[in-house]
Amino acid sequence: MTQSGAYLAPGVYVDEKNDFPGIVAEVATAVPVFIGYTQKAEHEGKSLLNRPHRIDGPDEYRKYFGGAPTPKFEIRRKEAGSSQEAVFSLQGQGYCLHRQSGRYFLDYSMRLFFANGGGPCYVVSVGSYQESITLERLAGGLEPLRQEREPTLVAVPDAMLLESGAECAALQRAILEHCGRHARNRFAILDIYEGPEGGDDPDRKAIRAFRDAIGTACLGHAAAYYPWLKTTVVGSQDVGPENIGNADLLQALIEEELGIPRARIDENVMRQSKVFRLSMEDIRKRLNLLPPSGAMAGIYALVDRTKGVWKAPANVQVNAVNAPAVMVSDSEQENMNVSPDGKSVNAIQSFPGEGVLVWGARTLDSNSADWRYINVRRTASMLEESMRLACGSYAFEPHTADTWGMIRSALSNFLLGIWQRGGLAGAVPDDAFSVRIGLGQTMTPEDVQAGTLRVSVLVALARPGKFIEIAFQQQMQKS
């Protein structure tokens, strides 16, 4: 047989035809990338600094990025008139712990992520524990992500350790710009800056400051959560004498308490000491106060995996958490959920008998009827990216009705599968989606002449049912 199709010799010839339309592969939705500081960053002797690296679990994280930091605290006598509570008292004198150095959030946030259902993710290490946390380094971690397609969520818990709220806001605006303009299939999980210590905001000034500073660009590509969380990820085995900066004073106090010569004080003796025990409990309590983005990234992954990206990541229990750092009242929740500027902040609340639950599902663009809800924005991003990648295989195909029909069939079959799994609203497929392509529908003869192929896809995305009203009234007795 020649290239023209003419047969030159007798025989039986088989000509295979493609009867099935192309397949649209659903892209991954809950693959977060964490940007921050790590103990190390290397793989087989090669540096991973400022390079996105995929890991599948906590063991791989420790293998490539090391363990937790060793923050230092200094024991000081409590000064008269100080509002800080004494950690312990000895001979009538109160003592407090003051933080010195070494506070980083990424390692602990990764623990929260995996404890709440997290799986595969990416890590971008921007520096080691010997380096200061700076806006330039954290913002620089966004640049290498432009070359990665898989990550769909962005979390930067170390942003909470920047020196000022203004620096944190500048970084968060850069994250919004990255997700909304450079990588439109990405969604940011933002924390509320409450200062380096965090977790103490009786007047909710942190929320007002966040709303004032976050700007107005790309708000539909992010959600913010409040308050910080009292977690359990830092255990007693994670703290020890190495966390005390002035070890000589610690030993002197234990010597005074137990009446044991300093030369005989080892770690076993220390653990019998009230001074040591209360100091370690205070350090662990303070290290366990964490921003919620790590936990929320895990919850997004869990909900996507078990229910689908179209399920709102709300009314879900937060694991490895004892309580929110502050209790949010119903009236405060109303202001957080709906505000004049539309910048909703999702609450994490504690409910008797139910534990700590995520109690909000809005993006920062709450005034938008299109992108008000997290699951709507993220479902749309998944559909757009999946269909974009699938349509790429038809580039340079003949601009004819046959090609249009193949594209229509591929996209329709994909959307039908999403609808059957509950991802689109509608009693029948025609109510849930439509795919249009063709002359007189989406294209003009001039479009075809110019090589422009236009497809119009309409989808009905499911909004979460947040407000459930039960009409209750009495009726007259009938018997």
From TrEMBL:
Full protein name: Phage tail sheath family protein
Protein family membership: Belongs to the myoviridae tail sheath protein family.
Organism for this UniProt entry: Pseudothauera rhizosphaerae
Family matches, as PANTHER family: PHAGE TAIL SHEATH PROTEIN, PTHR35861
Membrane-spanning intervals of the chain: none
Domain Tail sheath protein C-terminal, chain residue ranges per copy: 367-435
